Known about the structure:
Blueprint: E1 6-10, H1 18-32, E2 37-41, H2 60-71, E3 74-80, H3 88-96, E4 107-113, H4 121-133, E5 137-138, E6 143-145, H5 161-182
Parallel strand pairs: 1-2, 1-3, 3-4, 4-5, 4-6
Amino acid sequence: MANKSIVVLSGTLRPDSNTLKISKVIAALYQAAGVPADLLSLSELPPEAFLPTVYATKPPAVVALQDRILAAGGLHVVTPEYNGSFPGTLKHFIDLLKFPESFEHKPVAFTGVSAGQWGALRSVEQLQAIFGYRNAHIFPDRIFIPGIHGKLDAAGQVTDADIQSRLAAQSRGFAAFVSKLGA
């Protein structure tokens, strides 16, 4: 992987969201395995990212976030399901990034989080279509976490041993995938 980190992207700007909690768990799994991980929460988007002028002139704070994606060896997207899809803020962030180089041949993994029974399956599948269009290398092992409210403790740690095991296996597998593609 040549010391390139994996960016774990928390795909919502809601503060203290379950998506952010799972993103932190995933980042910690990479770090525990000796894989550099950079947690990027969409809550870091500055207010000027939502101005109509942002597409013509990117503010320095938006450029800094874009540069983190460009420098990443891989991208692990953690998305909630909002209204049968992924958050509009996540789509806006994707649209702000340089085309095509932000995702061109970049390894991407997906984890879906939802309160409902499907674990953000729709959200992940919609994102896979977007990232496929952008020529990303999509890691096939996706994790879907349904009923998220019953799977985290007050400290944001996963209480379901099966989910924790699957997240650990996904992070190990994705790190190997990133390394293989970067070789």
